[in-house]
Amino acid sequence: MVPNRAEDELEEALLEVSAMIESTVAMHRDRYSTDRMLSNVEGDYDAVLDTAHEIIVGATTSIDIVHARRVAGEGRQGRSERQLLYSADPAVCVRLLSSPEMLDDEFVREQLGRERPVAVRVARVPPLQAIIADGTTALVVTGTAVARRASVIRVPEVIHTLHILFDNVWRTAVPANERIVFGDRARAAFARQILGALRAGVTDEVAARDLTVSVRTYRRYVAEIMALLGANSRFQAGVRAAELGLLPPSGPDGRAPTRGGE
């Protein structure tokens, strides 16, 4: 399948912002730290969460969050991170942009019963954690657990760029409650293999042989998956699957799929 040019350009732009934040911290630390426009969050991951809590509680109009960085092994995580969002003022508009890998399905379900739910959308974004409050303050976390950098930023130029990019990604992101559920784990894994074959462009005969099913059965599964995805063509099914985060970037099993039995 031909890569989506817009997605590639968007990812490049997001990576550029991440690099801009890094360079701002490195080059202008002294200049901005004197008036508290830029400061590093020192300490363990608990300190990062405490800072996030302060920013969320202090927000009065809006909170935009990017959740696309794994935090395993960095201290408190999971439920405690989700609870941070519930500490926001009920009048504040909260938007959460998650990568497919980091999406918390339980949290999405919890929003269905809330009077003022957190709006959750899914998109492929570089590994980054960020909170933008009221369009004036941001907490940005980059890097690994070993080489993590967390910064509180109030530099208008950086905040403005972050806000514009968030809005651009948000407009094309998929609402989390539209993600397709294929059933149990085994059935979902089989569906992803079929989607991977469609994305790779292999013939029905080759795909059916690889999946050890008849060509007729394979084509029946393809038709069912297309119906679930609301797709009118196989190409559209692949595009829709990518939008919903149903396929990893490199293929159904983390490897580049083969084409035509190669």
Automatic annotation (TrEMBL):
Domain HTH luxR-type per the UniProt entry, residue ranges: 192-241
Pfam families xref list: Regulator_TrmB
InterPro entries: Sig_transdc_resp-reg_C-effctor, Tscrpt_reg_LuxR_C, Tscrpt_reg_TrmB_C, WH-like_DNA-bd_sf
Gene3D superfamilies, per database record: Winged helix-like DNA-binding domain superfamily/Winged helix DNA-binding domain
Position of the signal peptide: none
Protein name: TrmB family transcriptional regulator sugar-binding domain-containing protein
